[in-house]
């Protein structure tokens, strides 16, 4: 099993293919297995899937569960594997980590950035109408993470897939979410929810692709379109038959769109 130790945490990753490196970053309480359909891309692309600390098959450290810490882990990971000229694909919280990474380290390592189903801030704000939840709802989610983490996992799974759902995908998602200990769930769920990256969007000066599931039940697609409208030169791609996971729900189309974008970077 490939692992690398950075900033005191042993991180699990998988790499396949040879060519332009595409680094996939998963969502909060999720894991790299969500990108199972992206680990066998056509010739000419290297797929790199990373589990953040505390998630998936990475070490369940007691500390370091903030978006800035995950971004610092990402930079150390890229340095350790000598990865440059990468296309960074952030899904959900993975996009927040991507914006934090750009804020901390700039874009020198990046040749492109892909945002999948994420807005720049999740908590409702007076000047941002696309919030996912208010503070009281966030507190309820954190309490559920401690009181009944399986119920929390089920709550997320129910909203991530368009239509009737898929039993095999449901099991995969539930299993990945259940790998994250409740204390880590609460810590990172709170931290990522109070971050605001609206001011960073204009600093994304590499080619950017923004993807949104038209039927997204977790985030407001209009909030994702907000990202595309405020990121210099960003392209917007809508996935009509997807909720929060177009790379799982429409993998063939997602992979075609992704690799075509990479070729343009």
What does this structure look like?
By secondary structure, the chain is of the alpha/beta class. The chain has one domain (3-264): Rossmann fold, CATH 3.40.50. 39% of the residues lie in helices and 19% in strands. The protein has nine helices and eight strands. It has helices spanning 67-80, 93-105, 135-147, 149-160, 167-178, 182-193, 221-230, 246-249, 251-264, and strands at 3-6, 9-16, 19-25, 44-50, 86-91, 110-116, 208-213, 235-239. Strand 5, helix 2 and strand 6 form a beta-alpha-beta unit. The mean pLDDT is 94. One of its GO terms (molecular function) is hydrolase activity. This is Alpha/beta hydrolase. Residues 21-251 form the AB hydrolase-1 domain. Pfam families: Abhydrolase_1.
Chart the SSEs and their pairings.
Elements: E1 3-6, E2 9-16, E3 19-25, E4 44-50, H1 67-80, E5 86-91, H2 93-105, E6 110-116, H3 135-147, H4 149-160, H5 167-178, H6 182-193, E7 208-213, H7 221-230, E8 235-239, H8 246-249, H9 251-264
Parallel strand pairs: 3-4, 3-5, 5-6, 6-7, 7-8
Antiparallel strand pairs: 1-2, 2-4
Total number of helices: 9
Query: How many strand segments?
Result: 8
Strand order of the largest sheet: 1-2-4-3-5-6-7-8
Average per-residue pLDDT, rounded, comes to 94
Report Rg.
17 Å
Q: What is the H-and-E element order?
A: EEEEHEHEHHHHEHEHH
> Could you name the CATH homologous superfamily?
Alpha/Beta hydrolase fold, catalytic domain
From the helix content, strand content and strand pairing, which structural class follows? alpha/beta
According to CATH, the fold-level topology is: Rossmann fold
Strand content: 15-25%
Helicity level, as a percent range? 25-40%
Low-confidence stretches: none
Total domains: 1
Measured between the Cα atoms of the first and last residue, the distance is 31 Å
Largest sheet: 8 strands, mixed
**Overall morphology:** globular
CATH architecture assignment: 3-Layer(aba) Sandwich
GO molecular function, one term: hydrolase activity
Pfam family, one: Abhydrolase_1
Protein name: Alpha/beta hydrolase
Keywords: Hydrolase
């Amino acid at each position: 099993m490939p692992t690398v130790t950075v900033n005191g945490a042993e991180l699990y990753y998988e790499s396949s293919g040879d060519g332009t490196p595409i680094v996939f970053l998963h969502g909060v309480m999720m894991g790299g297995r969500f990108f199972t359909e992206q680990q066998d891309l056509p010739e000419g692309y290297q797929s790199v899937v990373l589990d953040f600390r505390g998630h998936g098959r990475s070490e369940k450290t007691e500390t370091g569960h903030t978006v800035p810490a995950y971004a610092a882990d990402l930079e150390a990971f890229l340095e350790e594997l000598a990865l440059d000229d990468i296309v960074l694909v952030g899904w959900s919280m993975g996009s927040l980590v991507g914006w934090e990474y750009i804020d901390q380290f700039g874009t020198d390592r990046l040749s492109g950035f892909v945002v999948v189903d994420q807005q720049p801030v999740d908590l409702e704000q007076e000047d941002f109408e696309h919030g996912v939840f208010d503070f009281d709802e966030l507190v309820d989610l954190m309490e559920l993470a401690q009181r009944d983490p399986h119920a929390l996992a089920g709550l997320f799974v129910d909203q991530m897939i368009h239509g009737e759902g898929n039993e095999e995908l449901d099991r995969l998602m539930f299993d990945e979410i259940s790998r994250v200990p409740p204390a880590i769930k609460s810590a990172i769920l709170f931290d990522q929810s109070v971050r605001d990256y609206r001011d960073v969007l204009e600093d994304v000066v590499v080619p950017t692709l923004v993807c949104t599931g038209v039927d997204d039940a977790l985030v407001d697609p209009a909030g994702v379109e907000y990202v595309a409208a405020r990121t210099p030169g960003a392209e917007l791609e809508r996935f009509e038959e997807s909720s929060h996971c177009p790379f799982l729900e429409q993998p063939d189309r997602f992979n075609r769109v992704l690799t075509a974008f990479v070729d343009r970077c």
